[in-house]
Protein backbone atom coordinates (compact mmCIF):
# COMPACT_ATOMS: atom_id res chain seq x y z
CA UNK A 1 0.00 0.00 0.00
CA UNK A 2 1.20 3.49 -0.86
CA UNK A 3 0.23 6.01 1.82
CA UNK A 4 -0.93 9.53 0.94
CA UNK A 5 0.97 12.03 3.10
CA UNK A 6 -0.24 15.30 1.55
CA UNK A 7 -3.30 16.43 -0.37
CA UNK A 8 -4.06 19.77 -2.01
CA UNK A 9 -6.89 20.95 -4.25
CA UNK A 10 -5.69 23.01 -7.21
CA UNK A 11 -9.30 23.45 -8.30
CA UNK A 12 -12.64 21.72 -7.75
CA UNK A 13 -11.65 18.79 -9.95
CA UNK A 14 -7.81 18.82 -9.86
CA UNK A 15 -5.99 17.35 -6.86
CA UNK A 16 -2.34 17.01 -5.89
CA UNK A 17 -1.38 13.91 -3.92
CA UNK A 18 2.02 13.31 -2.34
CA UNK A 19 2.45 9.55 -2.00
CA UNK A 20 4.99 7.40 -0.15
CA UNK A 21 6.92 5.43 -2.79
CA UNK A 22 10.62 5.50 -1.85
CA UNK A 23 11.94 3.14 -4.54
CA UNK A 24 10.14 5.04 -7.30
CA UNK A 25 11.26 8.39 -5.90
CA UNK A 26 14.87 7.23 -5.98
CA UNK A 27 14.86 6.08 -9.62
CA UNK A 28 12.41 8.55 -11.20
CA UNK A 29 13.59 11.02 -13.84
CA UNK A 30 11.81 13.86 -15.65
CA UNK A 31 9.31 12.37 -18.10
CA UNK A 32 8.65 9.14 -16.21
CA UNK A 33 5.13 8.09 -15.22
CA UNK A 34 3.43 5.57 -12.96
CA UNK A 35 0.26 3.51 -13.18
CA UNK A 36 -1.88 3.62 -10.05
CA UNK A 37 -4.87 1.73 -8.76
CA UNK A 38 -7.28 2.53 -5.94
CA UNK A 39 -8.87 -0.65 -4.60
CA UNK A 40 -8.74 -4.28 -5.66
CA UNK A 41 -10.12 -4.67 -9.17
CA UNK A 42 -9.82 -0.93 -9.75
CA UNK A 43 -9.00 0.62 -13.11
CA UNK A 44 -5.30 1.23 -13.84
CA UNK A 45 -4.67 4.97 -14.28
CA UNK A 46 -1.42 6.33 -15.82
CA UNK A 47 -0.11 9.50 -14.15
CA UNK A 48 3.08 11.42 -14.81
CA UNK A 49 5.31 11.98 -11.78
CA UNK A 50 5.17 15.75 -11.21
CA UNK A 51 7.90 15.75 -8.56
CA UNK A 52 9.85 13.46 -6.25
CA UNK A 53 11.59 13.84 -2.90
CA UNK A 54 14.27 11.20 -2.34
CA UNK A 55 14.82 12.14 1.31
CA UNK A 56 11.11 11.83 2.16
CA UNK A 57 10.67 8.91 -0.20
CA UNK A 58 7.67 10.51 -1.87
CA UNK A 59 6.36 11.22 -5.36
CA UNK A 60 3.87 13.92 -6.35
CA UNK A 61 0.90 13.13 -8.58
CA UNK A 62 -1.66 15.52 -10.06
CA UNK A 63 -5.04 14.00 -10.91
CA UNK A 64 -8.04 15.45 -12.70
CA UNK A 65 -11.33 13.90 -11.60
CA UNK A 66 -13.08 12.91 -14.84
CA UNK A 67 -14.37 9.34 -14.57
CA UNK A 68 -15.27 6.94 -11.79
CA UNK A 69 -11.69 5.82 -11.08
CA UNK A 70 -10.07 9.27 -11.06
CA UNK A 71 -12.87 10.58 -8.84
CA UNK A 72 -12.21 7.69 -6.44
CA UNK A 73 -8.49 8.53 -6.34
CA UNK A 74 -9.17 12.24 -5.82
CA UNK A 75 -11.51 11.39 -2.93
CA UNK A 76 -8.73 9.69 -0.96
CA UNK A 77 -7.43 11.62 2.06
CA UNK A 78 -4.15 11.89 3.97
CA UNK A 79 -3.50 8.64 5.82
CA UNK A 80 -5.32 6.54 3.23
CA UNK A 81 -3.46 4.60 0.55
CA UNK A 82 -3.35 3.75 -3.13
CA UNK A 83 -3.48 -0.01 -3.64
CA UNK A 84 -0.82 -0.07 -6.36
CA UNK A 85 1.74 2.34 -7.77
CA UNK A 86 3.82 0.80 -10.58
CA UNK A 87 6.82 2.58 -12.04
CA UNK A 88 8.75 4.50 -13.03
CA UNK A 89 7.55 3.70 -16.56
CA UNK A 90 8.35 5.12 -20.00
CA UNK A 91 11.45 6.83 -21.29
CA UNK A 92 12.97 9.72 -19.35
CA UNK A 93 13.18 13.12 -21.03
CA UNK A 94 16.38 13.81 -22.95
CA UNK A 95 17.84 16.82 -21.17
CA UNK A 96 20.74 18.89 -22.52
CA UNK A 97 21.81 22.50 -22.88
CA UNK A 98 20.43 23.75 -26.19
CA UNK A 99 19.93 27.46 -25.54
CA UNK A 100 16.42 28.87 -25.19
CA UNK A 101 13.63 26.40 -24.42
CA UNK A 102 9.96 27.35 -24.53
CA UNK A 103 7.88 25.04 -22.32
CA UNK A 104 4.10 25.08 -22.93
CA UNK A 105 1.62 23.53 -20.53
CA UNK A 106 -2.12 23.28 -21.02
CA UNK A 107 -4.42 22.54 -18.06
CA UNK A 108 -3.19 19.56 -16.02
CA UNK A 109 -0.41 19.12 -18.60
CA UNK A 110 1.53 21.59 -16.45
CA UNK A 111 2.11 18.81 -13.89
CA UNK A 112 4.27 16.58 -16.15
CA UNK A 113 5.85 19.72 -17.62
CA UNK A 114 7.16 20.96 -14.26
CA UNK A 115 10.00 18.41 -13.82
CA UNK A 116 11.08 19.06 -17.42
CA UNK A 117 11.16 22.82 -16.81
CA UNK A 118 13.26 22.23 -13.70
CA UNK A 119 15.67 19.84 -15.47
CA UNK A 120 16.05 22.14 -18.50
CA UNK A 121 16.88 25.07 -16.23
CA UNK A 122 19.38 23.04 -14.21
CA UNK A 123 21.05 22.01 -17.49
CA UNK A 124 21.82 25.69 -18.15
CA UNK A 125 19.07 26.61 -20.60
CA UNK A 126 17.07 29.82 -20.69
CA UNK A 127 13.54 28.63 -19.94
CA UNK A 128 10.45 30.54 -21.02
CA UNK A 129 7.29 28.87 -19.69
CA UNK A 130 3.81 29.40 -21.10
CA UNK A 131 0.87 28.18 -19.03
CA UNK A 132 -2.52 28.08 -20.73
CA UNK A 133 -6.07 27.31 -19.63
CA UNK A 134 -9.64 28.28 -20.38
CA UNK A 135 -9.94 30.46 -17.27
CA UNK A 136 -7.72 31.78 -14.46
CA UNK A 137 -8.91 29.22 -11.90
CA UNK A 138 -7.65 26.36 -14.10
CA UNK A 139 -4.02 27.57 -14.07
CA UNK A 140 -2.04 25.26 -11.78
CA UNK A 141 1.50 25.17 -10.32
CA UNK A 142 2.13 28.80 -11.29
CA UNK A 143 4.53 29.56 -8.43
CA UNK A 144 6.49 26.34 -8.86
CA UNK A 145 6.89 26.90 -12.60
CA UNK A 146 7.94 30.53 -12.04
CA UNK A 147 10.69 29.36 -9.66
CA UNK A 148 12.52 27.53 -12.47
CA UNK A 149 11.64 29.84 -15.37
CA UNK A 150 13.45 32.89 -16.67
CA UNK A 151 10.09 34.17 -17.84
CA UNK A 152 6.52 33.03 -17.21
CA UNK A 153 3.68 33.83 -19.61
CA UNK A 154 0.05 33.10 -18.72
CA UNK A 155 -2.55 32.65 -21.48
CA UNK A 156 -6.28 32.26 -20.82
CA UNK A 157 -9.05 31.82 -23.37
CA UNK A 158 -11.25 34.40 -21.66
CA UNK A 159 -8.51 36.85 -20.63
CA UNK A 160 -9.25 36.39 -16.91
CA UNK A 161 -5.50 36.08 -16.21
CA UNK A 162 -2.41 37.06 -18.17
CA UNK A 163 -2.91 37.49 -21.92
CA UNK A 164 -6.13 36.62 -23.71
CA UNK A 165 -5.66 33.95 -26.34
CA UNK A 166 -4.51 30.42 -27.00
CA UNK A 167 -1.11 28.99 -26.15
CA UNK A 168 -0.08 29.19 -29.82
CA UNK A 169 -0.34 32.99 -29.68
CA UNK A 170 2.09 33.04 -26.76
CA UNK A 171 4.49 30.69 -28.57
CA UNK A 172 4.45 32.74 -31.75
CA UNK A 173 5.02 35.99 -29.84
CA UNK A 174 8.18 34.55 -28.27
CA UNK A 175 9.41 33.13 -31.59
CA UNK A 176 8.96 36.52 -33.28
CA UNK A 177 11.04 38.36 -30.69
CA UNK A 178 13.97 35.98 -30.10
CA UNK A 179 15.68 32.79 -31.22
CA UNK A 180 14.06 29.67 -29.82
CA UNK A 181 16.06 26.42 -29.89
CA UNK A 182 13.46 23.95 -28.57
CA UNK A 183 9.77 23.89 -27.73
CA UNK A 184 8.21 21.40 -25.30
CA UNK A 185 4.42 21.11 -25.23
CA UNK A 186 2.26 19.03 -22.88
CA UNK A 187 -1.50 19.24 -22.62
CA UNK A 188 -4.65 18.25 -24.50
CA UNK A 189 -3.96 16.51 -27.81
CA UNK A 190 -5.49 19.31 -29.87
CA UNK A 191 -3.31 21.87 -28.10
CA UNK A 192 -0.14 19.89 -28.81
CA UNK A 193 -1.21 19.47 -32.45
CA UNK A 194 -1.52 23.20 -33.01
CA UNK A 195 1.69 24.01 -31.16
CA UNK A 196 3.41 21.52 -33.49
CA UNK A 197 1.85 23.14 -36.56
CA UNK A 198 3.00 26.56 -35.33
CA UNK A 199 6.61 25.57 -34.65
CA UNK A 200 6.87 23.56 -37.86
CA UNK A 201 6.46 26.81 -39.83
CA UNK A 202 9.61 28.10 -38.15
CA UNK A 203 11.45 24.75 -38.26
CA UNK A 204 11.93 24.73 -34.48
CA UNK A 205 12.46 21.28 -32.91
CA UNK A 206 9.43 20.43 -30.77
CA UNK A 207 8.78 17.69 -28.24
CA UNK A 208 5.39 16.54 -26.97
CA UNK A 209 4.33 14.13 -24.24
CA UNK A 210 1.38 12.07 -25.45
CA UNK A 211 -1.64 11.21 -23.32
CA UNK A 212 -3.08 8.20 -25.12
CA UNK A 213 -5.40 5.55 -23.69
CA UNK A 214 -3.23 3.13 -21.72
CA UNK A 215 -3.98 -0.22 -20.09
CA UNK A 216 -1.00 -2.36 -19.08
CA UNK A 217 1.89 0.10 -19.48
CA UNK A 218 4.30 -2.54 -20.79
CA UNK A 219 3.62 -2.44 -24.54
CA UNK A 220 1.64 -5.70 -24.62
CA UNK A 221 -1.96 -4.49 -24.96
CA UNK A 222 -1.39 -2.03 -27.80
CA UNK A 223 -4.02 0.43 -26.54
CA UNK A 224 -1.56 3.33 -26.51
CA UNK A 225 -0.25 2.87 -30.05
CA UNK A 226 0.37 5.96 -32.16
CA UNK A 227 1.87 6.58 -35.57
CA UNK A 228 5.14 8.49 -35.49
CA UNK A 229 7.02 9.15 -38.72
CA UNK A 230 4.83 6.54 -40.42
CA UNK A 231 5.71 3.83 -37.89
CA UNK A 232 3.70 2.34 -35.04
CA UNK A 233 5.00 3.30 -31.61
CA UNK A 234 3.74 2.50 -28.12
CA UNK A 235 3.52 5.50 -25.82
CA UNK A 236 4.06 3.45 -22.66
CA UNK A 237 7.47 2.05 -23.67
CA UNK A 238 8.67 4.18 -26.60
CA UNK A 239 7.39 7.45 -25.11
CA UNK A 240 5.59 9.26 -23.72
CA UNK A 241 7.68 11.92 -25.50
CA UNK A 242 8.04 12.15 -29.26
CA UNK A 243 9.08 14.56 -32.01
CA UNK A 244 5.92 16.63 -32.40
CA UNK A 245 6.43 17.14 -36.13
CA UNK A 246 6.32 13.38 -36.75
CA UNK A 247 3.22 12.48 -34.71
CA UNK A 248 -0.02 11.71 -36.53
CA UNK A 249 -2.21 13.80 -34.24
CA UNK A 250 -5.40 13.32 -36.26
CA UNK A 251 -5.19 9.55 -35.80
CA UNK A 252 -4.35 9.95 -32.13
CA UNK A 253 -7.27 12.31 -31.49
CA UNK A 254 -9.63 9.92 -33.26
CA UNK A 255 -8.46 6.99 -31.10
CA UNK A 256 -8.82 9.08 -27.91
CA UNK A 257 -12.54 9.31 -28.71
CA UNK A 258 -12.94 5.53 -28.67
CA UNK A 259 -14.74 5.51 -25.30
CA UNK A 260 -16.63 8.76 -25.58
Question: Could you characterize the architecture of this molecule?
Answer:
The strands form three sheets. A seven-stranded antiparallel sheet has the order 6-1-2-5-4-3-7. Helix 3 links the parallel strand 8 and strand 9 (about 125-135). With about 260 residues, it is of the alpha/beta class. It folds into two domains: about 1-90, Beta Barrel (Elongation Factor Tu (Ef-tu), domain 3), CATH 2.40.30.10; about 100-255, Nucleotide-binding domain of ferredoxin-NADP reductase (FNR) module (Rossmann fold, 3-Layer(aba) Sandwich), CATH 3.40.50.80. It starts with a strand and ends with a helix. It is globular, with a radius of gyration of 17 Å. The model has no long low-confidence stretch (mean pLDDT about 90). It has helices at about 20-25, 70-75, 110-120, 140-145, 165-175, 190-200, 235-240, 250-255; strands at about 1-10, 15-20, 35, 45-55, 60-65, 80, 85-90, 100-105, 125-135, 150-155, 165, 180-185, 205-210, 225-230, 230-235, 240-245.
Strand content: 25-35%
Segments where pLDDT lies below 50 for 5+ residues?
none
- Bulk shape: globular
For the terminal residues, how far apart are their CA atoms? 32 Å
> What characterizes the major β-sheet?
7 strands, antiparallel
CATH-wise, what's the superfamily of the largest domain?
A: Nucleotide-binding domain of ferredoxin-NADP reductase (FNR) module
* CATH level-two architecture of the largest domain: 3-Layer(aba) Sandwich
Q: Which structural class is indicated by helix and strand composition?
A: alpha/beta
Radius of gyration: 17 Å
For the record, the count of structural domains works out to 2
CATH level 3 topology of the largest domain: Rossmann fold
Total E-strand runs: 16
Amino acid sequence: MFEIVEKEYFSEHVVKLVVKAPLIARSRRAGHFVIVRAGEGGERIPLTIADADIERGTITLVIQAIGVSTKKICALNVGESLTDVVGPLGQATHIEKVGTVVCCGGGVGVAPLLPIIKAMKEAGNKVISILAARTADLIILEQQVAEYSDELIIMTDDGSKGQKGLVTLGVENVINREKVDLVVAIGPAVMMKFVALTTKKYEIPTMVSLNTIMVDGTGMCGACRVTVDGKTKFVCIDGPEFDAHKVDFDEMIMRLKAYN
